[in-house]
Design brief:
Mean pLDDT: 88
Largest sheet: 4 strands, mixed
Shape: globular
Number of strands: 6
Number of helices: 2
Radius of gyration: 15 Å
Helix content: 25-40%
Structural class: alpha+beta
């Protein structure tokens, strides 16, 4: 059960946080790359970023000690050259973070499954 966010300026809701905003932007950027067909939460359903009662599936965004963020994406992809696809996703996420002025330390891309493969 989600709890209401404290509306005090000292405690902004997690969904309004920079970390959650970057997670959402990274997920959206990845899904716009041709060859990416979806995201995946992993076998245990834990590959998510949670904030303000929302779950962003297939993306983990964590603050770093240097004040930036590490983003990991777990994707379902079409049968395309996967290394090139991963580089395109990384570039899209980096471009998006730079455009909105959020410090991004790293982006990692994990291919969870191939769309159309048996069981997907």
């Amino acid at each position: 059960m989600s709890q209401p966010a404290n509306s005090s300026p000292a405690f902004p809701s997690a969904a309004g946080s920079e970390r959650f905003r970057l997670a959402r932007l990274a997920q959206e950027a990845a899904l716009r790359v041709p060859g990416v067909s979806g995201t995946d939460t992993g076998a245990m359903g834990l590959f998510v970023t949670v904030g303000g009662g929302e779950r962003l599936e297939g993306v983990i965004c964590a603050a770093t000690k240097d004040g930036g963020y590490d983003v990991s994406l777990q994707l379902v992809c079409e049968l395309v050259p996967l290394l090139a696809l991963a580089e395109q996703v990384k570039a899209a996420v980096k471009h998006t973070a730079a455009r909105v002025g959020i410090a991004l330390e790293s982006v990692s891309v994990h291919v969870a499954a191939l769309a159309g493969a048996e069981g997907v």
